[in-house]
Write a structure and sequence with these properties.
Layout: H1 5-17, E1 24-25, H2 27-40, H3 48-65, E2 76-77, H4 78-88, H5 96-110, E3 118-119, H6 120-130, H7 136-146, E4 153-154, H8 156-168
Helix pairs in contact: 1-4, 2-3, 2-6, 3-5, 5-8, 6-7
The protein binds calcium ion (3 copies).
One calcium ion (CA) binds near residues 115, 117 and 119.
C-alpha cells in the first residue's frame, strides 16, 4: 500500500530521529541528539546549558516517545511511531502539551545566544549537527518556509505551528511541511 503524504512525513521524522540508525527510536537516540545539538550550539560538556539541552531531550523521550512503545520493549519501532503519530490527528488538542515538549527541545538545543528564538545561523548549526543527512540548501529552504514573517528568527510560536503542520496536516501547501527539509508530494 502506498503511503500518504502525511505518512511519508512521519516516516521521515522517524528516520531523522533514529540517530544511531538501528531502526528503532530509543532513549539513547535522544541522548545522542542532545549531545550533538549542545556541541553545535557551543555549550561545553557538563555546562548548565548542555544539561538543559539533555533534560529537554529526555523529556521528549519520556513525554512524547516512550508512550508510543506499545509492545513495551523499551524501543519505538517505525510501525509503533507511525501508528502513534498518525493517531495524534484524531485528538490535536490533546497533543498540545506534547507539542510544547518538542518545541522546548528545539529551542533549548539550538538557541545559542539564549534570546528565546532560533536565528538562521542557530537553526543551521542545529540542523547540520542533528540531521546530518540534510543538505545545506535543504536547511536554508526549510528555514525560509518556517520563518513565516520573514524576520530572520523562528519563534516558539512559529516552531509550534510548523511541528503541528508537519505531524498532523495533509495540506501539501502548509509551510510546516518543510520542518525537516523537502518532502516530495
Ligand atoms: Ca535508534
Ligand atoms: Ca517498541
Ligand atoms: Ca537565538
Amino acid at each position: 500500500m502506498s503511503q500518504t503524504f502525511l505518512e511519508r512525513k512521519i516516516a521521515r521524522c522517524f528516520d531523522l530521529l533514529d540517530r544511531n540508525s538501528d531502526g528503532d527510536l530509543s532513549r539513547d537516540d535522544c541522548v545522542a541528539l542532545a549531545r550533538a545539538a549542545a556541541d553545535a550550539s557551543g555549550f561545553a560538556a557538563e555546562s548548565a546549558d548542555a544539561r538543559r539541552v539533555h533534560d529537554a531531550y529526555i523529556r521528549l523521550w519520556e513525554v512524547l516517545l516512550a508512550p508510543m512503545d506499545s509492545d513495551g520493549n523499551g524501543r519505538i519501532s517505525r510501525d509503533e511511531y507511525v501508528t502513534a503519530v498518525t493517531g495524534l490527528s484524531a485528538d490535536p488538542d490533546g497533543y498540545a502539551d506534547s507539542l510544547g515538549v518538542a518545541v522546548d527541545a528545539f529551542v533549548e538545543a539550538g538557541d545559542a545566544d539564549r534570546d528565546g528564538r532560533l536565528s538562521q545561523p542557530e537553526f543551521w548549526a542545529l540542523y547540520r549537527a542533528t540531521f546530518p543527512s540534510l543538505g545545506r540548501e535543504e536547511i536554508v529552504d526549510a528555514f525560509r518556509h518556517l520563518d513565516r514573517n520573514g524576520d530572520g528568527h523562528l519563534t516558539r510560536q512559529e516552531l509550534s505551528q510548523s511541528i503541528r503542520e508537519y505531524l498532523l496536516s495533509e495540506d501539501v501547501n502548509a509551510p510546516g511541511n518543510w520542518f525537516l527539509g523537502r518532502v516530495d508530494i
